[in-house]
Amino acid sequence: xxxxxxxxxxxxxxxxxxxxxxxxxxxxxxxxxxxxxxxxxxxxxxxxxxxxxxxxxxxxxxxxxxxxxxxxxxxxxxxxxxxxxxxxxxxxxxxxxxxxxxxxxxxxxxxxxxxxxxxxxxxxxxxxxxxxxxxxxxxxxxxxxxxxxxxxxxxxxxxxxxxxxxxxxxxxxxxxxxxxxxxxxxxxxxxxxxxxxxxxxxxxxxxxxxxxxxxxxxxxxxxxxxxxxxxxxxxxxxxxxxxxxxxxxxxxxxxxxxxxxxxxxxxxxxxxxxxxxxxxxxxxxxxxxxxxxxxxxxxxxxxxxxxxxxxxxxxxxxxxxxxxxxxxxxxxxxxxxxxxxxxxxxxxxxxxxxxxxxxxxxxxxxxxxxxxxxxxxxxxxxxxxxxxxxxxxxxxxxxxxxxxxxxxxxxxxxxxxxxxxxxxxxxxxxxxxxxxxxxxxxxxxxxxxxxxxxxxxxxxxxxxxxxxxxxxxxxxxxxxxxxxxxxxxxxxxxxxxxxxxxxxxxxxxxxxxxxxxxxxxxxxxxxxxxxxxxxxxxxxxxxxxxxxxxxxxxxxxxxxxxxxxxxxxxxxxxxxxxxxxxxxxxxxxxxxxxxxxxxxxxxxxxxxxxxxxxxxxxxxxxxxxxxxxxxxxxxxxxxxxxxxxxxxxxxxxxxxxxxxxxxxxxxxxxxxxxxxxxxxxxxxxxxxxxxxxxxxxxxxxxxxxxxxxxxxxxxxxxxxxxx
Length: 723
Fold this sequence. Notes:
single chain; alpha+beta; 8-stranded mixed sheet; 5-stranded antiparallel sheet; 11 helices; disordered N terminus
């Protein structure tokens, strides 16, 4: 089979390179070759495959591509990557873009410091191009630091990522979690905090968990060992909570909580520093989470705090025998409640901080007081409250942006980071007594003046008249001439907001005259649970309409035209791009759907796809839901009548066990087989990478080199030309 594969690839590449030579000879301008129709590999296919949804027959000819370990799929992946690499390698400025992206990313990035019980300060730092950020510790906030844990030493290629740190309550031990090649699967290791010596304890097949310490061990969540060869595709069921005692093998770990009647639920454990209680959070079915507690000192049965998964409920603090928690039960934008720890049922809840006009996003202790975070018009706001729930003051920031906080109940030291589209994350110390901020450090990117760029926020009407917020960032002095390239980004789902944030990759776009537009679509959390619900299930079309309206707004206002419009989104945002391209292919020149959910009829059958049913609904729910999903499912709605589609570069990765690569495989195969014009329809399939988290810097640069090369080339723009 290997010989047949190599012959297939050679023949395919010979045809492609011959076409490339002819195209290069004839080319007069950048992008003219992109108009030539490419020859794509023939995908594994079975035209007889159909599914019945309440009497509705749906064809699924590319079902064989769901088997990502099948030889035919492996061969197709290699052939597709060969075609994509052949296409990208012809782009004359690709190497120059790689050099520029490398330079833009080569600056020191220092995270927020956290003061631990040992009095030392811990923080992450990356010297610029390290694949993974290193965890340091120092005796003083500005003192000389030592390496505490360097994840770059855990692999030769930087594909092992440090995903979490959890110290025992006495500070003696540190448990840390890692993921390999971008997978959601988690491994847990334990080290001596003082000597940094690794202990023999090692946990495998954990997922969506940290280590919650109690006594001489910790609680963690894991699944049964998966079937060999199906670790990254089979549905995950029966998430259990275990207790691991230090010095014992994993095989002796005890199950402390499971729910066999609900095998698709997630379960996670939380033990407060006092080690009095074990809280279990349940999720995966509704839009929120359940919560129960057990008294670890007195024993007894579980006490249910929140029985359903209809609302969010998150523990913020345990103080003087009381639980402080946030919830959107009875308050769509969130509020802070308090209850006796030994009588926490809903009937005993009392309001600590009432619901406000902005969306509550978090609360944490800072000595005797609290820092309470809100989101208003997709931007972070933070307030100081005293221990009685009275507001003291609002913290002030330079402009709209994103704020990270570091504080603890044991001291009054507060540190925060602030970032925005033209503000790389800077670190400040905050004085709780005076309300003054002291600058600590900020990154310096050589050759870039952030004052050259400006961000504005606009509110545009969607199809039903709803006003949608959008941030627009561009170089000062840019004219509305209808020919500015626009990079429109969106997500719109799962109660997740898109606040302002900094990206070194994005600088490449901005410095070449591009406009970055970030739309805060319905389905997110920008305006609370009502905003979220307005973009879910039978309301999902609102999200696509919001995104289309964003593009139309940029055109109507004279910023750009369809010939210069680029759209991008990842995961649920990949679905967004795929769906909107099918709905309005005339509106965009280039589309980048990344790791997208592309088969809405079968998404719930893979890994944790079932967990997304609260946002999407499933094809098994009802005839109405099945019909609605089919109406926008990207892989099922590709036009095949000669309608010109934009140039499309699909991206996925072999270890993506969040949105399995089969989604992108089937979508790309269907795109390439359909009559959608001559613009390229390519797929980039990364190796030893997953859904995006923990991706090493080298792979980030490689990916964005290819994405921007594809975009600029198909826009007919040479970014290396003197402007």
